[in-house]
Automatic annotation (TrEMBL):
The keyword Cell inner membrane belongs to this UniProt entry's keyword annotation: no
SUPFAM superfamilies, per the entry: POZ domain
PANTHER family found in the cross-reference section: SKP1 (PTHR11165)
InterPro entries: SKP1 (IPR016897), SKP1-like (IPR001232), SKP1/BTB/POZ_sf (IPR011333), Skp1_comp_POZ (IPR016073)
Species: Hymenolepis diminuta
The keyword Transferase is assigned to this record: no
Domain SKP1 component POZ positions: 42-67
Name used for this protein in its record: Skp1_POZ domain-containing protein
Similarity-based family: Belongs to the SKP1 family.
Keywords: Ubl conjugation pathway
GO biological process: ubiquitin-dependent protein catabolic process
SMART domains: Skp1
C-alpha cells in the first residue's frame, strides 16, 4: 500500500507505507486520516507544502537505506554527542546532495525525523571540524 503526498510544487509522490512509518509527521497524519475516515481514499493526498519533491525524494532515499542497513553499517549515535559518527553511506549521501542539503535539514525538522536531524547535526559538526583542520594546516604555511 502507498500513501500519496502532495509537495509544494503540487507534485504527487506515492510513498510505501513502510517508508511512511519512518517519517513521524506523515505517519501520524496518515493514521489520523485513516482513523477519521476509516481508510485513506485512493486519490487522497497528504499536503506537504513546505517540502519540494526533490527534497522529499532525497528523504525517501535516506529512509530506504536506513530501513535495510545492518547495525554495523549504520550511524553510531550512542553516548555523548561528540562521539557520534556517521556511516560512510550518509557521508556520501550528504556530499552528493550538497546542493539541497539545507533543504534536507529543514525537511528533517518539518517531518519530525529525529534520526535524520541527528545525522545532519553530526555531518555539520564533521564539516566544521574538517574546516578547522584545514585552517590550521594553512596557518603552518605562513
Amino acid at each position: 500500500m502507498f500513501i500519496r503526498i502532495r509537495t509544494n510544487e503540487n507534485v504527487i509522490l506515492e510513498i510505501a507505507e513502510d517508508i511512511v512509518s519512518l517519517i513521524p509527521l506523515l505517519s501520524d497524519t496518515a493514521n489520523g486520516l485513516s482513523q477519521s475516515d476509516g481508510e485513506i481514499e485512493q486519490d487522497e493526498a497528504i499536503d506537504l507544502n513546505k517540502v519540494t519533491s526533490e527534497t522529499l525524494q532525497a528523504v525517501i532515499e535516506w529512509c530506504n537505506y536506513h530501513k535495510i542497513c545492518t547495525p554495523e553499517n549504520d550511524n553510531r549515535m550512542e553516548g555523548p554527542r561528540s562521539t557520534w559518527q556517521l556511516c560512510q553511506w550518509d557521508r556520501a549521501f550528504f556530499l552528493e546532495k550538497r546542493r539541497i542539503y539545507e533543504d534536507i535539514m529543514e525537511a528533517a525538522i518539518i517531518l519530525e525525523m529525529d534520526n535524520l536531524s541527528d545525522a545532519c547535526s553530526v555531518y555539520n559538526a564533521q564539516l566544521f571540524h574538517d574546516f578547522q583542520d584545514y585552517g590550521e594546516s594553512l596557518s603552518f604555511r605562513y
